[in-house]
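Contributing: when you submit paired examples, paste them exactly as shown. First protein:
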Amino acid sequence: MSRNTIQNLNKPVIILGIESSCDDTSAAISSNDNILANIIAGQKVHEAYGGVVPELASRAHQQNIIPVVDQALKAAKVNKKDLDAIAFTNGPGLMGALLVGSSFAKSFALGLQIPLIEVNHMQAHVLAHFARLKGDSKPKPEFPFLCLTVSGGHTQIIKVKSHFDFELLGQTQDDAAGEAFDKIAKMLGLTYPGGPLIDQFAAKETPRRSYFLHPRSSGLDFSFSGLKTAVLYFVQKQSAIDSDFVANNILDLCASVQYTIVSILMTRLEKSCHSNRYSSSSIGRRG
């Protein structure tokens, strides 16, 4: 560790970040808070199964990890010997997928004799607000602030007091919002991943009817499993009357589903703002 300890504050700190928590193999190079390169390799193998298959994901990570890191270093014009540390996702995520990223990061750091930094996936979502791409002049959030994190596997409202002080105010009690998007899309006969398709179709239509009520949940927590059930029963009922109901109303259905999910998120976020006395300028959104 003698060559590249993170002690010399007179030069930028260059870090290789590795992310492998689900089905994307990602590598980024940062110089202080500036992102020099960000390379992502997706995995289309899961499309045939309608969802992420953990074993297939870990195998694909093994194939992608070295090319992705190599591309990131080249895109950033950084030599591996210039790295000051390696950061990697240590959870939450798929165990096999995480193992690929962590094993590579540990081996690479050991070979270069540089520090290794374990990163919590959810904390990284929040702290990404402080990272900057080239030419990005957006202001950074000031502490404390609220962060709404919406992803495929998590939905949380977090009070961020400092870079390392987080308070979880609310989270989903069942499915995450992204998971609800994909599962409802599958009910509607859309291909995987269906969440982006719902968003595309919803953009073409304004919800004409209010199909779905908000599922009940306590405090600032979320719940989306009831919405999935409501969509399923509604579609089954209408399809029994008209077999072409989904095909003829797909835009309206997608718009209604997206409107309901977004309104659930915003209702809880507004409630958290009032209870914590925050304004809309003190909100960070990740997803």
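Second protein:
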Amino acid sequence: MPYRRLPNTDKARLKALKTALAKGREIPPFKLAFSQKSNQKLQSFLNSYENAMSYYSQNYIFQTKKSWLYSSSMKKAKMYVSHFIQVLNLAIMRGEFSQDTRKFFGLDDYESRIPSLNSENDIIEWGEKLIKGEAKRVLAGNSPVTNPTIALVRVRYENFLEAHHYQKTLQKNTARALEKLTELRTEADNIILQIWNEVEESFSDLPDDLKREKAQDYGVVYVYRKNEVSSLRFGESRQRGT
């Protein structure tokens, strides 16, 4: 015996709602297998749900398209921050800068090691420390680090910060769109459940096979369990063999 399965994706929900809506438009109210109350609720809800689906999809696609620009700016910022620290350490090893130089940048505990730059926050933190530290160091009369200069580091760092803030804004927009869509999914499920219950009740006096056939015209979905599918295939095979 097949069982009824409610939709569990936005695409399936929308199909169920549109199928019911089409029935509500083509069949007179006194012949319709679900109530006018449910039909009116469906009509007032469908556009909101479809618009929410579209809005979320647009935001998600736009965020995804822009993510490669963000990744590129992050990679470049990380490279320049890392290279600046490497050049600084090499200059200290050659004796061109004193060991105290690291204190300007908060690198006292790292000796010749590069601090972790694996996360967004790491890059933001160390980029800011390098920019501020180099400004203090030069102001104190020390010669600047070159190749890369702090000016080049700043350009890559600020480009990354701008991309970072923009990406966070896109993520927030997508999250808000998803939150709204999630709320409407619950309402969609309730409407579909109500309509399908009413449809099945309208055809409850019919034999099971005919009842399901009539209900399917309204978008109600029935599926067979795995063992039932196997039995059906076995029966079909036997019939073809006779």
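If you have annotations for the second protein, write them as plain sentences, like these:
DSSP finds six helices and two strands in the chain.
The longest helix spans residues 36-93.
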